Amino acid sequence: MVLSKEKKALDLSPFPDGSGYYGMFGGRFVPETLMPALEELEQAYMHFQNDQAFQAELQFYLEHYVGRPTPLYQAARLGEVLGLPRLYLKREDLNHTGSHKMNNALGQALLAKHMGKQRLIAETGAGQHGVAVATAAALLGLACTVFMGEEDMSRQEPNVLRMQLLQAEVRPVHSGSKTLKDATNEALREWIAVLEHTHYVIGSVVGPHPYPRMVRDFQSIIGQEVSAQVREREGGIPSYLVACIGGGSNALGLFAPFVQEKEVQLIGVEAGGRGLEGNQHAASLQRGRPGVLHGALSYLLQDQEGQVASVHSISAGLDYPGVGPEHSHLKMSKRARYVSATDTEALEAFHLLAGKEGILPALESAHALAYLHPLAAEMKSAGRQGEVVVLNLSGRGDKDLSVLMQHGGVGRASE
Ligand SMILES: *Cc1c(COP(=O)(O)O)cnc(C)c1O
């Protein structure tokens, strides 16, 4: 394929390079002892990516077990309120276990099995990734241990029980802020100790090479389906793609097939928490500086001394101080733009979708929904409000019921 000069100037493909860099971001900043495992994984991934039997097996499970393709739903009543007549929701909430996380967990679990591994370990924040990995482990007959911060265990109790019912061991992490960052540290530590029979399933497009690329590839099914679905329904390509950003995997899954289509606007919505002015947010791309976390160089929220900052979001799945290196590159090259929605805005968006469409979104996805207000205003002033917007509804809200109760429960809807 011959790339046009313009596309080359954007320098966005084929990323990452051989050492796992996206521009200046990414890489493999890990202890020497981990390098052989990462190389083994990279080799296996490159091999099975082109292996027809592996791909057919993955496709089989995605279709008959996960329930893909997920619908692309035109949200007419929500679109009417917002002034966006061609608003579509990509229903990743309808996947088995309730989010996009299953696409990646299944892909990596299957890869691990083909590599001859007998056990999966994983970190989890909201619990969605842990549940997805525990599910894939049960499906494929692998043992499973999930590391979870104590704070997250109490915020996401139903998911802890789910993992245990799926016969996974949930190991509480007491260090640091007792959240996702600390669980990831523990999982990496464990992996170094038990490399041979164990695969570490990272849950987002973060971590050392080849994880960011592998996770993006497993999630790209989202954007591939959207591409075909929009072509069928609208006869073209979408104008705007909107997704929330934790580590950035549901967003990259949606964006990936469109990165070369310069006219498609890519918008990532970070957790604005209690506002970007203080330090009660998780807006790594907007308020962070380049730094190394969990094996990769990327935008990172840091304090004055360069220590990893503590972060806040109402949604446990966005409560992470780092972000995938490919997003840092998409920001730096201005190919994508990154914005934020606060806790309050996300809650309002949750209730709006529930009331208008009968869908309870995950609080993570509600951040992306919240950004539709400013986006609609921007599209209106540009005379573009009739164009196609696709929002990735990354997960369902059942896991967030206790958080919603703490924030006024159903009372809010009538406020
Ligand atoms: C984990 C999670 C996210 C955030 O993770 P990404 O890697 O940024 O996609 C978003 N939505 C849901 C429902 C999640 O479970």
In short:
The protein has 415 residues and is of the alpha/beta class.
Task: Describe the protein's topology.
Elements: H1 5-10, E1 21-22, E2 25-26, H2 35-49, H3 52-66, E3 72-74, H4 76-82, E4 87-91, H5 101-114, E5 119-124, H6 128-140, E6 143-149, H7 150-155, H8 157-165, E7 169-173, H9 180-194, E8 198-201, H10 211-219, H11 221-234, E9 240-244, H12 249-255, E10 265-273, H13 284-287, E11 289-293, E12 296-300, H14 325-332, E13 336-342, H15 343-357, H16 363-370, H17 372-381, E14 389-393, H18 401-406
Parallel strand pairs: 4-14, 5-6, 5-8, 6-7, 9-10, 9-14, 10-13
Antiparallel strand pairs: 1-2, 3-4, 11-12
Helix pairs in contact: 3-5, 5-6, 5-10, 6-8, 10-12, 11-12, 15-16
The structure holds pyridoxal-5'-phosphate.
Protein described:
This protein is α/β, with parallel strands linked by helices and 415 residues long. The chain has two domains: 29-65 and 101-214, Rossmann fold (3-Layer(aba) Sandwich); 70-98 and 220-406, Rossmann fold. It is 44% helix and 17% strand. It has helices spanning 5-10, 35-49, 52-66, 76-82, 101-114, 128-140, 150-155, 157-165, 180-194, 211-219, 221-234, 249-255, 284-287, 325-332, 343-357, 363-370, 372-381, 401-406; strands at 21-22, 25-26, 72-74, 87-91, 119-124, 143-149, 169-173, 198-201, 240-244, 265-273, 289-293, 296-300, 336-342, 389-393. The strands form four sheets. It has a six-stranded mixed beta sheet with strand order 3-4-14-9-10-13, sandwiched between helices. It is globular and about 55 Å long. Pyridoxal-5'-phosphate is lined by residues 99, 101, 126, 128, 204, 244-251, 317-318, 362, 364-365, 394-395. Residues 99, 101, 126, 128, 204, 244-251, 317-318, 362, 364-365, 394-395 line the site of pyridoxal-5'-phosphate.
